[in-house]
Amino acid sequence: MRAKAVALNPNLKTHTAAVLTLGASEAVEVFDTNTGVVLQNYLALGKDSSGNYSGITYSADGKYLVFSQDSSNVPLNTSSTRFTIPHYISTQLNFEGEASYGRRYSTHEHYGTFEMGVKVRNAHKTQNENDLIFDNQPGTTTLANVLGGFRNPCYYDHAYQFGPMSDYGKIVQQVGGNLNQLGYDASSSIGSSIPADFDANERVYAGYLMNTIGFGKLSVQTGVRFEATDATYRSAALDVNGNPTSVPGSSSYINVLPSIQLQYRLQQNTLHCRRGKDPVCFAIVRTDQP
Q1: Which end of the chain is more exposed for a tag (fewer CB within 10 A), N or C?
Q2: What is the model's pTM?
Q3: For each successive 10 residues of the chain (290 residues), what is the average pLDDT?
Q4: Are residues 68 and 95 in the same domain?
């Protein structure tokens, strides 16, 4: 089933709605919004001049369905629909920097190299949302104000006079030019905007220290690498009473990774190494020298 128009009964206690269908044997179906069970069918087949194939709505008390062949009496929006003007600002600032230092030295005729380096990256992102939600007031904007030129009078062997259809561009223009006739819904605007606000910052640190020194045929390399992350955030929310509140949080960690490596040169082209806790010593035979 395809729906051309939907109307929600303004009397919410009835839990009913009506659908104006296309290409179905029942032109109108009234159903229970809780269970989905069809409660009533209205069959016109193009023969009932009081019927309508363009628009449908409920009377103010919810007791009657109202049809309009020229759509001039059918509100554009029901009380359950809203017009939202989204507005938000999202920013992100990233920066990073790095530095390194190295120096050769000698002590007691032993030559060595000391190196160190550090890198920092920071990402800061915020979002501030301020949506404006308006509820259509009965009778302020009708479908006739926003009709387009598309229609099909021959649809379903002339049984359904399809169209004219609404034009989205005209809807935006009509609503945007008549906001003062619509009801600003402050509660819904706050409920839609506040939970989308946040402020988050993440900073990552990385660095290392490394020293290499030789004692004859023995070379000793020691070092340590560290990695750390610090993240803080603030998220906006609504409390149980619907008032804006803030939910802060943070997360951080640091990892320290030490290392040691021993190298011993047996001959000119042969090298034995041992790294950290590795119990296996291995030999590297260099073939690039005679």
Answers
A1: C
A2: 0.51
A3: 64 72 59 73 48 53 54 44 80 95 89 94 94 72 75 70 76 75 82 90 96 88 95 90 88 94 74 54 50
A4: no
Kindly compute the dihedral angle of the four CA atoms of residues 33, 34, 38, 43, in this order, to the nearest 10 degrees. -10
CA–CA distance from 212 to each of 67, 70, 73, 75, 112 (Å)? Answer: 90, 89, 88, 82, 5
Does 64 map to a domain?
A: yes
Same domain, 123 and 147: no
- Cβ neighbours of residue 16 closer than 8 Å, sequence gap 6 or more: 9, 30, 31, 32, 33, 39, 62
> What is the pLDDT at residue 90?
92
32 vs 270: CA distance, rounded Å? 87
Amino acid identity, residue 24? A
Question: What is the number of structural domains in the chain?
Answer: 2
Residues 120 and 66 placed together within one structural domain of the fold: no
Note whether 120 and 18 are same-domain residues.
Answer: no
- Residue 7 structural domain: 2-74+142-177
What whole-number distance in Å separates Cα of residue 74 and Cα of residue 62? 14
Q: Are residues 117 and 37 both part of a single domain? A: no
Sheet architecture: strand order including 88-107: 88-107, 110-129, 198-215, 218-238, 244-267, 270-275, 282-285
Rounded Cα distance between 219 and 210, Å, is 13
Residue 128: C-alpha distances to residues 48, 185, 197 (Å): 53, 19, 5
Residue 187, φ and ψ in degrees, nearest 5: -65, -45
pLDDT at 2: 55
Helix (H, G, I), strand (E, B) or coil at 191: helix
Q: How far apart are CA 169 and CA 176, in angstroms?
A: 11
Q: Are 171 and 182 in contact (CB under 8 A)?
A: no
**155 and 69 part of one domain:** yes
In this structure, are 65 and 118 located in the same domain? Answer: no
